[in-house]
Design brief:
The complex is a heterodimer. Chain A contains ten helices and twelve strands. In chain A, the strands form three sheets. Chain A has a five-stranded antiparallel sheet with strand order 2-1-5-4-3. A five-stranded mixed sheet of chain A has the order 7-9-10-12-11, with helices on one face. A two-stranded antiparallel ribbon of chain A has the order 6-8. Chain A is rod-shaped. A five-stranded parallel sheet of chain B has the order 2-1-3-4-5, sandwiched between helices. In chain B, strands 6-7-8-9 form a four-stranded antiparallel sheet, covered by helices on one side. Chain B is an alpha/beta fold. Classes of the chains: A alpha+beta, B alpha/beta. Chains A and B meet through helix 5 and helix 6 of A and helix 1 of B.
């Protein structure tokens, strides 16, 4: 079981978009925050100046700052006044000391562990200091900046919703196609409906439709094959039923023996047909995966001839192999052997006793040709083109056969990219199988 | 019954011939559609078994042609094709029955008997003339409650005579019912079988009409049939 969650386009998109938007919002918020804080600080500085400016000039001391109404509003502001002799004339808060400073304008001062922002100005002949704790300023500035920035964070959920909905809507065609495909079974291979499909999904859908078409054709070929096979099997089965009936109802031992011999012939015929059907089914492309290897053609042909020797001997037919050049091609050894078996079997079947079958391998730069020729009766010219048709048998043939031998040969040749030619050789019939040139068609070096 | 069989597969043809002959039928065969017309016109067949899937001229063409020629013998089609359209086509072209391969031989025989008895205007297999009876299905014949043992050819001869009681069959007509075109017929074989039948079933059973032939005696004044 796959324990890793499969990647999700929607989640990835959401992550990227959400992340991007979040980063953007955060950057904006940060810069706005910093700017707002800076502005707040400047505002406070301005305020301090205004406090000083609002104080009555050249007034006799001490005066009641409380009456001027300034000190109340700024709880954190501390005001002190010094005369030019350094005498503290006024202090707004008891217990809070500001160092005497000659520096006018804004300064940052540290007193007893607390940082202060101090504004000093000359007022008549006294110096007035207005100070604010930096911590307080910062806190207030932060509050103001925060209030400015806070609405931005509403964008988070808002934009997330927009992104999510947008992604969902745009991925809807994918969901539609998915549902369509899920609802189908093996027989429903019609093309997927393609109207109004976005250009990113269209190529995928087209490719699937193309595959459906190919699969449909392949399935139709197989259906035809099965229908043909079922039809062809009826004849041998009919004969078997009749032959069994005769064996069953035979009245004499002699009759029974003859009936059983006929029954055996019938079963042999049926078995042969079934085997040929299975071979053809396996060889038809798409039925099973190909596994090409480097094949020594001579050894496969030799093995095939050995397979058919016993059968040839029963009809006193001799098979000769006129070649010794070891040639290698790319192919499947078992299929090639089946192919040669069928060609030679055909020759044996349709040649009278005493014939000769000659097999040869001829190599040239452009091809490797296997030639199998007999000196039998050959085939009428108008029938030759039909010999490789499935189940085709020359009308009037008395020899038993399935009609599939050369169809099998053709399928296997096709799988190997080889061409098949059948022609009269006067005398006899010649079958030529021409393989494309392989990497090595020269004798391989002995190890 | 004399049967014409048209079937191209050798094994089926040979075993079907053997099976039908062991039922006492006379069988001639062809392995293709050519020559059917002339065979039908030359010999008196009771029924034709026709395979549809023939090389060259198809069974349907053969059927169409022989019906067009006015040949009206019963035809039973044998075929591997079992699609409804094929059955309908065969029957509409003039076949009397249709059997799909692989078939059971017993079913084939039963259908053949059905076609033959309808042809003879009978509704039952059993043929009766007075006390004389013959059952083609059971391949038995007898008088009253006695079953008489007959050889295959004797049976066929009796069946032929009983198919049209009283009608005179010439010797040649009887020979054509008993022997296929490949078989040698002895010059007086029919007399031998007639003699055997008379011996087994009664001398008055069969009437000789000099110079013409033989017939089954239906005259009730003859003692053999009461």
């Amino acid at each position: 079981m796959n324990l890793i969650r499969p990647s999700s386009m929607r989640r990835t998109l959401l992550l990227w978009l959400g992340g991007g938007i979040s980063v953007g919002i955060l950057l904006a918020a940060t810069s706005i925050y910093l700017e707002a804080r800076q502005q707040a600080n400047e505002l406070f500085d301005y305020q301090m100046r205004q406090v000083v400016a609002s104080l009555p000039v050249r007034q006799a001391l001490p005066f009641d700052l409380g009456r001027s109404g300034v000190a109340d509003s700024q709880e954190d502001i501390v005001i002190q006044m010094w005369n030019d002799h350094g005498l503290r004339l006024y202090r707004s808060h008891e217990g809070r000391y500001l160092p005497q400073h000659a520096e006018l304008g804004f300064t940052d001062v540290e007193v007893q562990g607390t940082s202060w922002r101090v504004y000093s100005a000359q007022l008549g002949d006294a110096v007035i200091q207005v100070a604010q704790p930096v911590a307080a300023r910062r806190a207030m500035a932060a509050r103001m900046a925060w209030k400015t920035v806070a609405p931005l964070f509403l964008l988070f959920p808002l934009l997330s919703i927009v992104v999510w909905v947008s992604i969902s809507r745009n991925l809807r065609p994918v969901a539609t196609v998915t549902r369509d495909l899920q609802a189908r079974n093996v027989d429903s291979l019609e093309p997927i409906h393609m109207s109004a499909m976005p250009e990113e999904i269209a190529p995928l859908t087209e490719a699937i439709n193309g595959l459906f078409e190919r699969v449909k054709q392949s399935l139709e070929l197989q259906h035809h094959f099965i229908a043909d096979a079922a039809h062809e099997l009826k004849t041998p089965l009919t004969a078997l039923k009749l032959q069994l009936h005769l064996a069953h109802t035979a009245r004499t031992d002699e009759d029974r023996a003859r009936a059983l011999a006929d029954l055996k012939r019938g079963i042999d015929r049926a078995s042969h047909l079934v085997n040929q059907l299975l071979t053809l089914a396996r060889q038809t492309s798409g039925a099973s995966p190909t596994s090409q290897q480097d094949v020594a053609l001579l050894s496969v042909l030799t093995a095939s001839i050995q397979d058919l020797e016993p059968l040839a001997r029963t009809k006193s037919i001799s098979i000769t192999l006129d070649t010794s050049s070891p040639v290698h091609i790319a192919g499947e050894p078992d299929s090639l052997r089946t192919m040669f078996n069928n060609v030679i079997d055909n020759a044996i079947r349709y040649c009278p006793t005493g014939c000769t079958i000659r097999a040869a391998i001829e190599t040239s730069p452009t091809q490797v040709m296997v030639r199998i020729r007999d000196d039998g009766p050959g085939v009428a010219p108008e029938e030759i083109s039909r010999l490789t048709d499935r189940f085709y048998r020359v009308p009037g043939t008395q020899t038993e056969g399935s009609g599939l031998g050369l169809a099998i040969v053709r399928e296997i040749a096709q799988r190997h990219g080889a061409s098949l030619q059948v022609c009269n050789a006067f005398p006899g019939l010649e079958v030529r199988i021409c393989f494309p040139p392989s990497i090595t068609n020269t004798p391989s070096p002995t190890p | 019954m004399r049967i014409l069989l048209i079937e191209d597969d050798t094994m089926i043809r040979e075993s079907l011939c053997a099976a039908l002959r062991s039922e006492g039928m006379t069988v001639d065969y062809l392995d293709r559609g050519e020559g059917v017309g002339s065979a039908l016109k030359s010999f008196p067949y009771d029924l034709m078994l026709l395979d549809v899937g023939l090389p060259g001229r198809s069974g349907f063409d053969v059927l169409k042609q022989l019906r067009a020629d006015g040949l009206d013998l019963p035809v039973l089609i044998l075929t591997a094709r079992d699609a409804i359209e094929d059955r309908v086509k065969g029957l509409d072209l003039g076949a009397d029955d249709y059997l799909v391969k692989p078939f059971d031989i017993e079913e084939l025989l039963a259908r053949m008997r059905a076609l033959a008895r309808r042809r003879a205007g009978r509704s039952q297999n059993m043929m009766r003339v007075g006390a004389l009876w013959l059952d083609p299905a059971a391949h038995a014949a007898g008088i009253g409650s006695d079953t008489i043992s007959l050889s295959a050819r004797e049976f066929t001869l009796l069946e032929t005579l009983m198919s049209h009681p009283g009608m005179v069959f010439s010797r040649m007509q009887l020979e054509e019912k008993l022997y296929g075109w490949n078989e040698e017929i002895g010059s007086n074989t029919i007399e031998v079988y007639i003699h055997a039948l008379r011996r087994k079933l009664g001398a008055d059973l069969i009437r000789t009409v000099r110079g013409v032939g033989y017939s089954l005696n239906v005259d009730t004044s003859a003692g053999a049939l009461t």
